[in-house]
Design brief:
about 5% strand, rod-shaped, about 60% helix, protein heterodimerization activity, two-stranded antiparallel sheet, membrane, OSTbeta, mainly alpha
C-alpha cells in the first residue's frame, strides 16, 4: 500500500515523524530517484522493439501460411494423379477382359453338348465352363 502510494506521488506518507523508510526498505531519496528515472525514461526504444517483434511475428506467420498453401496444392495434385492413374488402370483391365471375352467367342463356336433327354421336369442341370453337364440334385 505504501509502495503504490509512493509511485503515485513524490510525497511519502509518514506515519511516524522524522526520516522514515518505506515498507520495502527504500529511503525517500532512493524513491525520488527511482521516480525521476521512470519519469524521464524514453519509451521509444521499447515501442520500436515491440514494433519490430510484431513485424517479425507477422512475417513468420505469412511464411508458414505460404508453405501450408503450397503443400496442400501439391498433396491435392498428387491425389488427382493417383486417382487418374487408378482409373486408367481399371479401364485398361476392363478393356483387356472384354478383349479376352471377344477373342474367346471369336475363336470358334463351341459345340454344346446336347442336354440329356431323360431329364424330368423341375430338374436343375448345370453346364460348366469345361463343357460337362451335371444335375444339382
Amino acid at each position: 500500500r505504501y509502495f503504490l502510494a509512493a509511485l503515485a506521488s513524490t510525497q511519502v506518507y509518514n506515519h511516524t515523524a522524522g526520516n522514515a523508510t518505506l515498507a520495502l526498505g527504500i529511503d525517500q531519496e532512493q524513491l525520488e530517484e527511482l521516480l525521476w528515472f521512470f519519469r524521464r525514461e524514453d519509451p521509444s526504444a521499447w515501442n520500436y522493439s515491440i514494433l519490430v517483434l510484431s513485424f517479425v511475428a507477422m512475417i513468420l506467420g505469412l511464411f508458414l501460411l505460404a508453405v501450408n498453401i503450397v503443400r496442400n496444392r501439391k498433396r491435392k495434385m498428387h491425389m488427382q494423379r493417383e486417382a487418374a492413374r487408378t482409373t486408367k488402370q481399371a479401364e485398361l483391365e476392363a478393356s483387356q477382359a472384354l478383349l479376352a471375352v471377344k477373342e474367346y467367342s471369336l475363336a470358334g463356336p463351341q459345340k454344346q453338348e446336347p442336354v440329356p433327354q431323360d431329364q424330368g421336369s423341375g430338374e436343375v442341370v448345370v453346364q460348366w465352363k469345361d463343357g460337362t453337364v451335371t444335375s444339382l440334385y
